[in-house]
Write a structure and sequence with these properties.
6 helices; 6 strands; globular; about 200 residues; alpha/beta; 2 domains; OB fold (Dihydrolipoamide Acetyltransferase, E2P); five-stranded mixed barrel
């Protein structure tokens, strides 16, 4: 049972993968001085993977789970970079970052989702639903299966703003993986985020 709960938590983390005017600096400054906009990064995100970069933009959303994730907004809802406060920064983003312009310095990462990972997530999710059915009954299991997964901002960042249930999101992953493989020969989806090292709150 403990293993099932832990693996289910991993699925939830992936999908949520689920949420003043004075300058405030946290930790050491980056060696990179030129800040990029989110839109500039997404013009060719592959070139930045593994590099330490600085981005600048409005913090559109701050994760309610202790400020572990800050989303920096581009010109469209689905153009956002998720900035993870741990492990490199070692402390959460404070509440006063929300809706303010920031620069965030960190290591740019690529998260890949392929069919094997989708199948594994489905297997673990179904095990969790079966466990709920055994412990609480079929009605509770059905509610859990149809519940929303992930916050609105995270779904928007992955182009799934109109999809809420686990099944809808997995079906969408599969369709998009197939489309990308046909178009580019790459049988996976790429989502990008940053392991934050430091940040500055800019003047509005």
């Amino acid at each position: 049972m403990k293993k099932t709960i832990l693996l289910f938590a991993t699925i939830v983390a992936l999908l949520t993968s689920a949420c003043g005017g004075s300058k405030t600096q946290q930790l050491a400054s980056s060696e990179t001085t030129d800040a990029l906009t989110v839109d500039q990064v997404f013009e060719s995100p592959e070139q930045y993977v593994g590099d330490t970069i600085t981005i600048e933009g409005i913090c559109s959303h701050l994760c309610t789970q202790g400020g572990r994730k800050a989303f920096i907004q581009g010109n469209a809802d689905n153009i956002q970079i998720r900035c993870e406060a741990f492990p490199l920064m070692g402390q959460p983003f404070p509440k006063n970052t929300i809706h303010h312009p920031l620069t965030v310095t960190g290591v740019f990462r690529e998260q890949r989702i392929d069919n094997d990972l989708v199948a594994e997530m489905e297997r673990e999710f179904n095990e969790r639903i079966d466990q709920i059915a055994e412990e609480r009954g079929e009605e509770s299991a059905q509610r859990a299966a149809n519940a929303s997964v992930g916050c609105d901002t995270e779904r928007a960042a992955q182009g799934q703003q109109d999809l809420t249930t686990f099944k809808e999101r997995m079906d969408d992953y599969r369709a998009r993986i197939a489309a990308r493989e046909a178009a580019e020969g790459k049988a996976y989806l790429s989502f990008y985020y940053m392991d934050a090292i430091s940040f500055d709150i800019l003047e509005d």
